[in-house]
Each structure stands twice: as structure tokens, then as C-alpha cells.
Design a protein that fits this description.
Blueprint lengths: L1 E5 L2 E5 L2 E3 L1 E5 L2 E6 L1 H7 L5 E4 L4 E4 L1 E6 L1 H7 L11 H14 L8 E6 L13 H5 L7 E5 L4 E4 L1 H7 L11 E5 L5 E7 H7 L7 H16 L3 E6 L10 H13 L6 E6 L4 H10 L13 E9 L29 H13 L4 E5 L2 H14 L10 E4 L5 H9 L3 E4 L4 H4 L3 H5 L1 H4 L5 H6 L4 E3 L10 H10 L19 H15 L17 E4 L16 E6 L2 E5 L2
Parallel strand pairs: 1-6, 2-7, 8-14, 9-10, 14-15, 15-16, 16-17, 17-18, 18-19, 19-20
Antiparallel strand pairs: 1-4, 2-3, 4-5, 7-21, 10-11, 11-13, 12-13, 21-22, 22-23
GO molecular function: hydrolase activity, acting on carbon-nitrogen (but not peptide) bonds
Keywords: Hydrolase
EC number: 3.5.1.91
Length: about 550
């Protein structure tokens, strides 16, 4: 099967473009002028006149949670709620309109107290009780590192004011001596279990809907932390579910799994005996197994990111360590011994320093053949960035986090540390290996607001006018390359995807405007007209 895109502006590499690209059997067969490739095309070739539109490589989200996105698309959306009362009203309405979906409980995602008008307090169980006292209610903060429950959920969890705290997480005790419904970090994992897991059929449907959503934004590959994160245990079961989706032709994008394990023993069992590693999928499969995914700390918004010094706006608090150094080190050692890449969630400077200390024991002579990586890596100083680049540790950035974080990072960490954080340009100039992603559904999976934040250092409303520490702005080529080539490198696929190049996968996106020349303030508004994965059109704007 052949498709010819001609009369286009095809992005090849920095400041280099072509007029046309010929796709044959899912691979980029030829790049050149329209006249050249019209002669090359077979008689049955589908020819698409792109009318001077720009074509870029398919966008590859280097860290997200696709199954949670699928879940969020069919539950209560708390994003941009302006008050606790609005959260209560949205949840009540959802229960009334969706009795079957909510009969076993409600898990709602996306609130952020910093966006409330007036009182900016965190909700508690008394607020959640106003939604329902009959079914468990769990309200997840946008970052995923803090949750609020009603009394029913606390009762089902079986804790009270005298219960022992969970390791690596907390539940707060109210003035009445009873849990007040506010949970952080690892305690959230225990709370989440009170609402029954979805059926396999429901999870399959969620995954497919999430894929449809992602490809509509030009995302052709995801590196998604679902196995062991969304669904604890049963990794084989859920990986087989993904394989089934693709075997039935329902998979729409390339799916690389970042996998969470609870112990070195579990990882070793998986690596040596697990069905997941028996090679049940072909080399060019659209669904593949990837790195060990670890968590070190929490989030800046919830004040659970690990800092070297006290939070500037919360003296005595330096964040929460989800897993101690020995636990992380033992898991990393097990992964490294089995040739497995490691990617670790780190937001605060103390978290990054701790994980780098562990990585440095695995990286010899500055070489990092397994491409161990840091996810987020937000709060940094110059010395840390130099060390990361020197050790060739990869960084998976989410520039879209700036939309919110630029309004809190100085108050959380102080101006001096804020000025060297979210340092996309500095790390790039130091030669760091960088990829971009969204951490969706913490943020939406649309890549273009993400690229906009990297290029402008402004929030989505266009502030501040000069950009937030504008010396850390990157140019548009750097941003697009991080989202394509950089993300492909992060999953050892830089010789097969991430560029429009002969012999590479035909993963491409046609844009409604030229991302390379448009006013940077418009980048966030760019929309795909067509998304292609492996030569197959998976989305076309109507």
C-alpha cells in the first residue's frame, strides 16, 4: 500500500525541509520533490495534495498514564473547579446522571486548591460526605500525589485515629481525633483499593478511547506507566489485554510500557520467569515492554516533592520520601543486573540528588548504556544539571507543568532555586539527553500547549509578557526534536522513528499551520489535520 504526500513542507531536521514524502507498506520509502515522487508512485498509490501544509514526525509522549486518561474521560472531571462547592456539585450531578457507573463509588480526578476562588483550603472528608455517605468517594488532586475521601471510604479502608501510618505516605488526623480524609503519596494507593477495580472489558474500552483521544492531537507513540501503577499486580493479565487490542486491530498508536514493581523479588521473577518477557510479540510490534518505573517523591503543588531545604512557604516541611534510598537502590540494582532501563519520578532537588547517587553506582565512566532516566527533574541547580549531563542520564521533561508551577515555584522554593529550575535550555546546551511528555492526565495529552510552554515560558494565558526566566526558552526546532527524536531515543528507537527519514516508520502528522514560522503565542492552538501511524491514517479532522 502506497501513500504520497506532496505539495507539503516536510520537516526533516533543523532548518531542512522537503516537498514530498512517499510511504510504502508502513515505511517512509522516499523523500524528495513532488515531481520526483509522482513519477515514483505506483498506479494504485493514494496521492494527497497537502496544499503547502507542514508535516512533522509523529509526536511521542515520553511519560504519561494512558489508562488513567481513559478512566478520566468517563468519570467526573474536576479540572478548573473554582471552589469546593463546585467539586461537590459536579460529583453529585455525575452520580445522578450515571447510576450504573457510580454504584460502587466515585473516583474523580483533577482538583487543585490553588485555583480556587476565595478560600484555597484542601477539601476534607466532611466536604466529600456532602457528595455521598452511601458510597465511597475519592477525589484525586491533579498531581496524583494527594487524595481526599469521604467517611465511607475511610470506614471501608479500616483505619481510625489510632491506626499506624503507611510507609511513604500519610493520612491526616483531624481535630476530632479521626482521619480527616486527606491522604498523600503511598497512602493513596491503599485508599484507591476501596473502590472495586474495573472489569477487563471496561479497561479495554478505556484504553481504546484514550488512544482515540491521543491520536487526535498528533500523538503516535506513548511511553505509558500503567502496568503495576494503575492496576497493582496481574501485569501479565493486563499486558495480554493490550496485546489483544492490537491483535484485533483496535490499537491506534505505538505503546511502550513503563512498569512499576513493588520489590526486587517481584522484578526478578518477572525478568526471569514472567510471561511478559517470553517474546510473545514481534520485533516491530506496536505494543512493547520497557523500563522499570520508580517513584522517589511527590509533587510541588501538594508540597510533597523532596527538597534539600524547608519549603519557603511551609517551614519544617521538606516533602515526603515515597521510598527510601535502600529500597530504590535494591530495585535499581536488580533492574540493572537484568539489563533493564530505569526511569524514576523526581521533582524536588533532594529527590534528584538521591536518585542520581544511586544511578552513579550503576553508570561506569560516564556511560549509561541502559539509558537510565529522570522523569520531571523540575527543581535543580546548575551543579546538578552539569552532573546529569556528564553522566549521560536522560531527562523526561514536561514543559506544560510551567503553566501552573511558574505561579508557585518561587513561593515554594525561593527565587534563587526557582531561577535554575525547569532548566530546559541549560540542560540542552550542556548536551543533556532530553525528551518531552505530558504526564497525562496530570496535564492534557495535547503536545502543542507543551511545546508552547517550552518555547515561550509563558502560561496558557500568555503571562508573563517576557516569559518566566526567559533565558530557559528553547527554540521551536529543539522543542519539536525533543518530542520526536528525543522521545524515540528514550525508548531505544531512534533508528526507527522520531524523524521523517527513508527507512523509518511512517508516523507523521499534518498540521493546520506552520509550527516553525507561526507566532509562538499560537503554537498552543495548533491542531492536527491528519495523524498517520505505520502508514495507516488513524485520525483525520472532519
Amino acid at each position: 500500500m502506497e501513500t504520497l504526500f506532496y505539495n507539503a513542507k516536510v520537516y526533516l531536521e533543523r532548518e531542512k525541509f522537503a516537498e514530498a514524502v512517499l510511504v510504502r507498506d508502513g515505511i517512509i520509502a522516499k523523500i524528495g520533490t513532488g515531481d520526483e515522487l509522482l513519477k515514483e508512485a505506483g498506479k494504485d498509490c493514494k496521492k494527497i495534495d497537502c496544499q503547502k501544509k507542514t508535516i512533522i514526525p509523529g509526536l511521542n509522549d515520553s511519560h504519561m498514564h494512558l489508562l488513567v486518561l481513559g478512566e478520566s474521560l468517563q468519570t467526573v472531571k474536576l479540572t478548573n473547579s473554582k471552589s469546593i462547592d463546585e467539586i461537590i456539585e459536579r460529583c453529585r450531578k455525575f452520580i445522578k446522571e450515571n447510576p450504573e457507573l457510580s454504584k460502587n463509588g466515585v473516583f474523580a480526578i483533577g482538583w487543585n486548591q490553588d485555583l480556587f476562588e476565595g478560600d484555597k483550603r484542601i477539601p476534607n472528608r466532611h466536604d466529600a460526605d456532602k457528595i455521598s455517605t452511601e458510597i465511597p468517594i475519592i477525589l484525586r488532586r491533579v498531581c496524583g500525589h494527594q487524595m481526599v475521601s469521604n467517611t465511607k471510604a475511610i470506614e471501608m479502608l479500616g483505619i481510625d485515629g489510632s491506626s499506624e501510618q503507611y510507609e511513604g505516605g500519610t493520612f491526616e488526623i483531624g481535630e476530632d481525633g479521626y482521619p480527616n480524609g486527606i491522604f498523600t503519596e503511598n497512602a493513596c494507593r491503599h485508599l484507591r483499593k476501596v473502590i472495586p477495580e474495573f472489569s477487563l472489558e471496561d479497561r479495554e474500552r478505556m484504553a481504546i478511547e484514550a488512544m482515540k483521544h491521543a491520536v487526535s492531537f498528533g500523538v503516535t507513540s506513548v511511553q505509558s506507566n500503567d502496568l503495576g501503577a494503575v492496576v497493582l499486580g496481574e501485569k501479565d493479565k493486563y499486558f495480554k489485554m493490550f496485546c489483544k487490542i492490537y491483535e484485533e486491530g483496535k490499537g491506534l498508536l505505538r505503546y511502550h510500557h513503563q512498569i512499576t514493581f513493588q520489590s526486587p523479588e517481584e522484578l526478578k521473577e518477572y525478568a526471569e520467569n514472567g510471561e511478559l518477557v517470553k517474546g510473545n510479540y514481534p520485533e516491530d510490534s506496536w505494543v512493547t515492554l520497557g523500563p522499570l518505573k520508580l517513584f522517589k517523591d511527590g509533587s510541588l503543588g501538594a508540597r510533597t516533592a523532596m527538597l534539600e531545604n524547608d519549603y519557603a512557604d511551609d517551614p519544617g516541611n521538606r516533602g515526603e520520601e515515597r521510598f527510601d534510598e535502600k529500597y530504590i537502590e535494591d530495585l535499581c540494582k536488580a533492574a540493572d543486573e537484568h539489563g533493564m532501563q530505569i526511569v524514576t519520578h523526581v521533582i524536588g532537588d533532594a529527590a534528584t540528588n538521591s536518585v542520581m547517587k544511586t544511578y552513579e553506582k550503576l553508570i561506569k565512566d560516564g556511560k549509561n548504556p541502559l539509558r537510565h532516566a529522570l522523569i520531571h527533574c523540575q527543581i535543580t541547580n546548575r551543579k546538578m544539571l552539569e552532573n546529569i549531563a556528564e553522566k549521560n542520564v536522560l531527562v523526561m521533561y514536561q514543559p506544560i507543568f510551567l503553566d501552573y508551577d511558574m505561579h508557585i515555584v518561587e513561593s515554594r522554593c525561593g527565587k534563587e532555586l526557582a531561577s535554575t529550575s525547569y532548566a530546559f535550555n541549560t540542560l540542552d546546551k550542556l548536551g543533556g539527553k532530553i525528551s518531552y511528555g505530558t504526564d497525562c492526565p496530570v496535564e492534557g495529552c495535547n503536545p502543542f500547549p507543551n511545546i508552547y510552554c517550552a518555547v515561550t515560558r509563558k502560561d496558557l494565558k500568555g503571562s508573563p509578557a517576557e516569559g518566566f526566566y526567559p533565558e530557559e526558552c528553547v527554540d521551536i526546532y529543539t522543542a519539536v526534536d525533543a518530542y520526536t527524536e528525543g522521545s524515540a531515543y528514550a525508548e531505544f528507537m531512534e533508528n526507527k522513528k522520531g524523524r521523517i527519514k527513508e527507512g523509518f516508520y511512517a508516523d507523521m502528522v499534518i498540521l493546520d499551520r506552520d509550527i516553525f514560522t507561526v507566532n509562538p503565542l499560537e503554537i498552543k492552538d495548533i491542531q492536527p489535520l491528519l495523524t498517520m501511524v505505520g502508514g495507516k491514517v488513524v485520525y483525520e479532522k472532519k
